[in-house]
């Protein structure tokens, strides 16, 4: 798969405890060490250990830590033992997340052996958008990052879109576009299929392409093998 | 106010008839033409030879309201407020319209506004201050779609919508209805239209030769006691003011006509 693109590697990286950065004696000690072995410390990568650290929940704090370390020619590249809030702030500051190394015990956390990436497409956990009035011709409704539920008819000439699923508990006569940001798992459910156009993640069928025996029925539309399939509910 | 989206469906005819119907019930009524540049209300009301000042003159301060209002010769309760034929809809300013409507409210029980067709400035200005809207619709696919559009616009661009007040009271008036053609499957039925538009039905006005006669003689069809359309308008007015009236000229129809027209398989 991606074997040739990414390879595993092992590095030795220095770990600095977050608490130490606040310690006035620390910089003095560190300056001394760097002076004794400048080539060793020049641009050396450092991971900030956030175990037991209450602060570092804002990106600028990491910026400040980075600057402190830079003064001693060290390069802050990541964090370990971070809480979810700290991870977010670290990511915003451009820092990587490291698993707790083998010589330490990790801060107990229910799910994270490997911290989850932050910038994948948001899972559809946002509150569904609910529309209870008829969606009139010429109207556009978009449920960003969520499902769309409509409990009234959708007129011809109206457009309803959702990043998630679309549920219409009435006649669907306009255009419905589910998985609008690319989610191929999204589905369309409707009480009566009379749509002008149906689409999931960019694949679409116009009214003419909908089999006549399925028009006017309560159906579920899904994307299977890159083709839209329509099934009776 | 009367609106439709689509042109030629019977807004002006209906505005005239409804205003006449209200006046016949003793309500002080003024009917206003918002179709600047394409004015018809004065013709349909039969007062085109008495127009001196118009809506735009009053908005611009060139004339006072009572100089522009024309009293109907047939009924003391009925007044007409014509608009300009030489200007166009850009001459309508929202502030000007608001001032005029406020002044009219002091003197009249009902202000009936005849909107132009379309969804641009002219139509939007006409619907902006509405408390009630009557959506004039023909039982025909283009008209139904345009009516749907204008209902959506009322729900989002009226003053009530913008200020989050109680929504405009919307009703449907189905005009040019022919029971014969519905039975033959050539025309959408009341149920078909009601299902698509999902708004309360104020009335069904049958197709009638008396309407053309009324326009050409400058007599609102509601004054014509023998015309079925006239009687249907009077029923609609009765319902509008809260009375119960049975729908005439209509029978329960089969829904399959709707499928046949919309399936297009």
Write the layout of secondary structure elements.
The complex is a heterodimer of chains A (233) and B (265).
Chain A: E1 14-17, H1 18-21, H2 24-36, H3 38-41, E2 45-49, H4 59-70, E3 75-80, H5 84-92, E4 96-98, E5 129-131, E6 140-143, E7 148-150, E8 159-162, E9 166-172, E10 175-178, E11 188-193, E12 197-200, E13 203-206, E14 219-224, E15 227-232
Parallel strand pairs in A: 1-2, 2-3, 3-4, 5-7, 6-8, 7-9, 8-10, 9-11, 10-12
Antiparallel strand pairs in A: 11-14, 12-13, 14-15
Chain B: E1 2-3, H1 11-24, E2 29-33, H2 41-45, H3 55-60, H4 65-68, E3 70-71, E4 78-81, H5 94-107, E5 110-114, H6 121-128, E6 132-137, H7 141-157, H8 159-162, E7 169-177, H9 179-184, H10 190-197, E8 201-206, H11 209-217, H12 228-240, H13 256-263
Parallel strand pairs in B: 1-6, 2-4, 2-5, 6-7, 7-8
Antiparallel strand pairs in B: 3-4
Helix pairs in contact in B: 1-12
Protein model, in words:
The complex is a heterodimer of chains A (233) and B (265). By secondary structure, chain A is of the alpha/beta class. Chain A is 18% helix and 30% strand. Chain A has helices at 18-21, 24-36, 38-41, 59-70, 84-92, and strands spanning 14-17, 45-49, 75-80, 96-98, 129-131, 140-143, 148-150, 159-162, 166-172, 175-178, 188-193, 197-200, 203-206, 219-224, 227-232. Chain A has a six-stranded mixed sheet, with no helix packed on it. Chain A has a five-stranded mixed sheet with strand order 6-8-10-12-13, with no helix packed on it. In chain A, strands 1-2-3-4 form a four-stranded parallel sheet. In chain A, strand 14 and strand 15 form a beta hairpin. The longest helix of chain A is centred in the N-terminal third of the chain and has 13 residues, at 24-36. Mean pLDDT of chain A is 85; it is low at 104-124. By secondary structure, chain B is α/β, with parallel strands linked by helices. In chain B, helix 1 (11-24) crosses helix 12 (228-240). The mean pLDDT of chain B is 91. Chain B contains 13 helices and eight strands. In chain B, the strands form two sheets. In chain B, strands 1-6-7-8 form a four-stranded parallel sheet, sandwiched between helices. A four-stranded mixed sheet of chain B has the order 3-4-2-5, with helices on both faces. In chain B, a hairpin with a 6-residue loop joins strand 3 (70-71) and strand 4.
